[in-house]
Amino acid sequence: MHLNQDQRAHTSLLYNLSYTMAPYTITYFAIKGRCGALKILLADQSQTLKEKLVTFDEWAKGDLKSSCVFGQLPKFEDGDLVLFQSTAMMRHLGRKHGAYGKNDSEAAHIDMMYDGVEDLRTKYIKLIYQEYETGKEAFIKDLPNHLSKFEAFMAKNKSGFLVGDKVSFADYNLFDLLLNLKVLCSTCLDTFPTLKKFVDTMSARPKIKALLESEDFKKLPINGNGKQ
Ligand code: GTS
């Protein structure tokens, strides 16, 4: 992530939101970014989370950065277990909370779909941070080519989830990315009935609904440069 003046101004506050009995801690910038899906998963699984929100000024000092395995956030703590890489965090939580399929073949398909979502997320992040002004129109034009793959896969599985008959960490990841893409292009799901229904159904799950409507979640911008 490249930091500019706008980004620094955007996250000039240091938040430290804690909830009692939180088993998990996340350290990250004051954005939804790569932690949106993780927060949705934890909320839906009735888990509490302690959040340490880091300002870019704090980050620029370098101490925290040098303590991170890859020099980047988010950092995730589950007791003594410390993880970097948001994808590893999601897999860990999927395993722990029964959101990783009911057998090896479901787990393999969940991995496959999760990685597919990450491929699209990578393109989205590149657009946001590197090509927003020049690439937005082309990205939106190309979006159906990507969304159609998820639509087709999910439509074959009649449960309303990507794999099996239970929500998985890949569903939370897809849901989070679709919410972001809808902000970028409000009509992007109009030709994808299965994905549209999926977003509506996930949004209506009571604990996810409560999270999405909470001030703590709503006040965080999606991305660190104010673009969305
Ligand atoms: N693959 C990593 C993950 O998924 O956790 C990427 C982490 C990453 O790129 N972190 C960025 C960062 O720490 C912030 S963000 O892209 O998630 O918003 N940037 C600051 C830096 O110094 O690199």
Architecture overview:
With 228 residues, this protein is of the alpha+beta class. It has 2 domains: 5-96, Glutaredoxin, CATH 3.40.30; 104-205, Glutathione S-transferase Yfyf (Class Pi), Chain A, domain 2 (Up-down Bundle), CATH 1.20.1050.10. Helix content is 57%, strand content 10%. The protein has helices at residues 5-10, 36-44, 56-60, 63-67, 86-96, 104-156, 169-184, 193-204, 206-213, 215-218, and strands at 15-17, 24-29, 49-54, 75-78, 81-84. The chain has a 5-stranded mixed sheet. The two termini are 15 Å apart. The model is unreliable at 2-20 (pLDDT under 50).
Describe the secondary structure blueprint for this structure:
Elements: H1 5-10, E1 15-17, E2 24-29, H2 36-44, E3 49-54, H3 56-60, H4 63-67, E4 75-78, E5 81-84, H5 86-96, H6 104-156, H7 169-184, H8 193-204, H9 206-213, H10 215-218
Parallel strand pairs: 2-3
Antiparallel strand pairs: 1-3, 2-4, 4-5
Helix pairs in contact: 2-5, 2-7, 2-9, 6-7, 7-8
The structure holds glutathione sulfonic acid (GTS).
The CATH architecture classification of the largest domain is: Up-down Bundle
As a percent range, the share of strand residues is 5-15%
| C-alpha geometry | globular
> What count of helical segments does DSSP give?
10
Could you name the ranges where pLDDT drops below 50 across 5 or more consecutive residues? 2-20
Q: In total, how many domains does the architecture comprise?
A: 2
Strand order of the largest sheet: 1-3-2-4-5
